[in-house]
């Protein structure tokens, strides 16, 4: 259909979705470089720990039901940069090792549409150890139509009815980025909102992201009796909207519902969905809703309709868990599409403890305030928040300058806690496409604290990984570290390398003299 020269599309079939797909397929993991596509809020160590606790609870519940022999598959949809999977696996293996319980084996499957992402995961140093242990696998999965999972590492094919255990599905920032229908409900009738798109003049020469940023959508309404017919698969949900809503635009997740139904078919025992998104599960958030705006961040996203997911699956006996308090930036929920959801007490308790009581959305709100106030908070407060955030590297990067300014008055215990934090941060660091020299900042701060052995470890790592020529500060600090550790040969070598870069470096010349080299004139 056309309108004034512009073609009209069903919202779920508009070219925006093909541009979206093209954007991710062209860039692969580079789409997350420098946060072009946001990832921190759904992929930091804090949310990874919460998810690991929920999975651990689920494994406990399955063991308690006598279901310990068969593996539990955990499928992450749209795994993107891979950071969430890394944090979940790291925390989950820690929990299992600490608890010493007999639990079912598990296999975490990272999936996405672009093959570039899968290739990137397969070669990522943070993920390789988990793949080698056999607890991590990868699959290309198209949420719009695929019915099977073809695992790249094991070669296994998971078909409908294959799994004995329920499938666990993780979907972060996923349902807001796949095709949705756009409905308008008024006076007990359902209309479909078609969209026409105004393109920028130079669209043919622009990349997908640039075109998406400049698109101007215009909506057109037509009666859509098909959503009101008994044969429509999600008729009970649309009937509910007909009865309850007036003058309301509703993003309807037909693709998401279809995806979950196809995943549900993989196991006769159902599925457990753990999901986080800009998504509304309360009906009042859809009342009198205006037409949606395309949120641009490299790609585009919309609000996920969690209400429709909950409504549909609860009608089939599912149990859902969302926070009683209102979310600000990230809504995290659980849908138990299981035969006996109430028997999964450890899973439900984990959600209550790590999401409901204080969860990823609360953490992010607190982080936003702290980001603006680092210059006013003390070392103990920085350490406490760093622990709460799972010793995340981003928190360290943002606070390193403030920490440095507070070292003069730091006590021995605070110094030791900083050392411990840096060690744990390094163990849990997941390198992203953008380059950041975390080893350098860690080494320099440890140098300031007089922890020369630890400083030398990190500065040496920075020197080896640096793609540019050595920085004289690093070489001089390494020389001092070596001197303090009585490794005089290394101290002399680093000092000479520093003086090659800057022959008049006063401190390096003094150190050379102290090491028995040439005296300053």
Characterize the structure shown:
The mean pLDDT is 91. 44% of the residues lie in helices and 18% in strands. The strands form 5 sheets. Strands 5-4-3-8-13-19-18 form a 7-stranded mixed beta sheet, with helices on both faces. It has 20 helices and 19 strands. Strand 3, helix 4 and strand 4 form a beta-alpha-beta unit. The longest helix is centred in the first third of the chain and has 20 residues, at 45-64. It is globular. By secondary structure, it is α/β, with parallel strands linked by helices. It has helices at 15-27, 40-43, 45-64, 83-99, 115-122, 128-133, 208-214, 235-244, 254-264, 306-314, 345-356, 360-371, 379-388, 393-406, 412-427, 438-448, 452-465, 472-484, 488-501, 506-514; strands spanning 2-3, 6-10, 72-77, 106-112, 136-140, 149-150, 157-158, 167-172, 181-186, 189-198, 216-223, 248-252, 270-277, 279-280, 295-297, 299-301, 304-305, 319-322, 331-338. Helix 3 (45-64) runs antiparallel to helix 11 (345-356) and helix 18 packs antiparallel against helix 19 (488-501).
How are the SSEs placed, and which strands pair?
Blueprint: E1 2-3, E2 6-10, H1 15-27, H2 40-43, H3 45-64, E3 72-77, H4 83-99, E4 106-112, H5 115-122, H6 128-133, E5 136-140, E6 149-150, E7 157-158, E8 167-172, E9 181-186, E10 189-198, H7 208-214, E11 216-223, H8 235-244, E12 248-252, H9 254-264, E13 270-277, E14 279-280, E15 295-297, E16 299-301, E17 304-305, H10 306-314, E18 319-322, E19 331-338, H11 345-356, H12 360-371, H13 379-388, H14 393-406, H15 412-427, H16 438-448, H17 452-465, H18 472-484, H19 488-501, H20 506-514
Parallel strand pairs: 3-4, 3-8, 4-5, 8-13, 14-17
Antiparallel strand pairs: 1-2, 2-10, 6-7, 9-10, 9-12, 10-11, 13-19, 15-16, 18-19
Helix pairs in contact: 1-7, 3-4, 3-11, 13-15, 14-16, 16-17, 17-18, 18-19, 19-20
